[in-house]
Each structure stands twice: as structure tokens, then as C-alpha cells.
Amino acid sequence: MKYLSLVVSLGLVMQQSVQAEEVSPCIEGDACTLALYSETAGQWQFINPERAKQAFAPYSTFKIANTLILLESGQVNTTARYQIDLNRYPAQDWWFKTWREPDQNLKSAFNYSVLPLYRQWSADLGRAAYEQFIQQFSYGNQDVSGPVDGFWLGDSLQISAVQQVEFLRKYQHQQLGLKASTYRDFSPIFLQRQDEQARLFAKTGGGMLAKGQARGWYVGMVENQQGMHYFAFNMDADSFKSLAETRIKKALASLQSLKVTVPE
């Protein structure tokens, strides 16, 4: 299995991994894109629109769809505590400290991209369920032919920034064919920050490319006084460290450059 790159293919370095310095927004011609749909205005906006149509591996942004699938199927719930099965997924030197906690809840597993748990849950649920749900969601290229515990990490599943936004719109309007309780239970897991002006629901994702560079995502929704804004940002970087340090700030700076108010 191609899991050497898993260290860097997770959403890894979680939502808190951004340094304090200012980061410039994505601009035309850079190796990045932002696809934005503002619902009240009924308006799409793009930075580097051609790249916004290109499909890439979703990496850990797939945890949005995957967590919905796992909740809907009863594989997980919001009250249980979970442990990694170390017989199936032995601890590795590169595992993060947050992964080594003796148990996790669903919120921590989502926020910290605890890959061994998601691999475990996905393998237990099985390929047939993913084939059904991914088709039901019309998620990306709908190809789950890669390893059942890692097809979203570059093996087969691909999605564009535009398709990420379309999926999020279906999620928000409860058009994915799921129980009302699934949407309700996932919402606080998805929420990352809020203030008096706005709420941000989002997930990181990222992985290494064959040429040694890194590609990362930040996708989600901003709810503010102007309504709901759905976004998908991706970028390339010369290392995963550089990517992890900048992707969230660059995504949020890009949203602000298009006049979307984001929470502090």
C-alpha cells in the first residue's frame, strides 16, 4: 500500500497548525485556486477558474463526506469513545501526539484527522457502502476502487474545487438522502470557529505529490450577515511543512479578498 505518504496526506496538521504571520491571498497565476459560491447573491466567484475545475485527490477533506456516511450507517456516533486497533494499524513513529491519546471522540478524530481510526471505520463499513453513498452524493469522480481504507488519499477518488462546493451545497440543504439526525449530529463536528459576525465550518486536507511537492485543501462554509458562502481552496507548496503553515490563512485571506467576512 502507498501509505508512506500518509504522514502528509491527512488533513494532517490540523486546524491549529497555522503560524501567526500574515499570509497573502491566492492571486491569478499562482498554483492555487478558490471556488466560492455566495448563496444570497446566487453568485460564483473564482481565483484561477481553470484550476477550480481540475480534479485532485480530496485527502482529508473527504472526512466531511466520510463522517456523514459513518454517522448515517451507524458505524460511529457522537457520544462514544474510540480506540485505534493497534493490531490492525500499529503505531508509527510519524504519528502525531494527538493520535496517541488512549481514546478519541468523533469530534477529535475529525479535527485532528486521526487517520488510523478513519481507516479502521472505513474498512469495517466496507466497499459496497462507499460505492452506494459516493454515487448517491455524486461526489467527484465517484471512483472508490482504491484501498477501502484509503481510496481518498490519492489512489482513485478525485474531486475539483467546483465539485467540493456543489457537494457542500447539497449537504447544507439536506439533499444527500440522509436522515435529519445525521445532518444535526455532524454540524457541531464541522464547526471550527465562530464570533459575533460569522461562523466557519471547514476541513483541511493535504498530501505529497510524486515530484516531491505538496498539495493541500481547505474547504467549507462561512455563515455571516450576508448569508452562506461555500468555498473550496487548494494550493501547491514546495513542502508539506510550508503547506501546513499557510493553507488555512491563505484560504481565509483569499475569502476576504473576495469580500467574505470570516470569524476571527
UniProtKB/TrEMBL annotation:
<feature type="signal peptide">
    <location>
        <begin position="1"/>
        <end position="20"/>
    </location>
</feature>
<dbReference type="InterPro" id="IPR002137">
    <property type="entry name" value="Beta-lactam_class-D_AS"/>
</dbReference>
<dbReference type="InterPro" id="IPR012338">
    <property type="entry name" value="Beta-lactam/transpept-like"/>
</dbReference>
<keyword id="KW-0046">Antibiotic resistance</keyword>
<keyword id="KW-0378">Hydrolase</keyword>
<dbReference type="Pfam" id="PF00905">
    <property type="entry name" value="Transpeptidase"/>
</dbReference>
<feature type="domain" description="Penicillin-binding protein transpeptidase">
    <location>
        <begin position="52"/>
        <end position="239"/>
    </location>
</feature>
<dbReference type="InterPro" id="IPR001460">
    <property type="entry name" value="PCN-bd_Tpept"/>
</dbReference>
<protein>
    <recommendedName>
        <fullName>Beta-lactamase</fullName>
        <ecNumber>3.5.2.6</ecNumber>
    </recommendedName>
</protein>
<comment type="similarity">
    <text>Belongs to the class-D beta-lactamase family.</text>
</comment>
<keyword id="KW-0732">Signal</keyword>
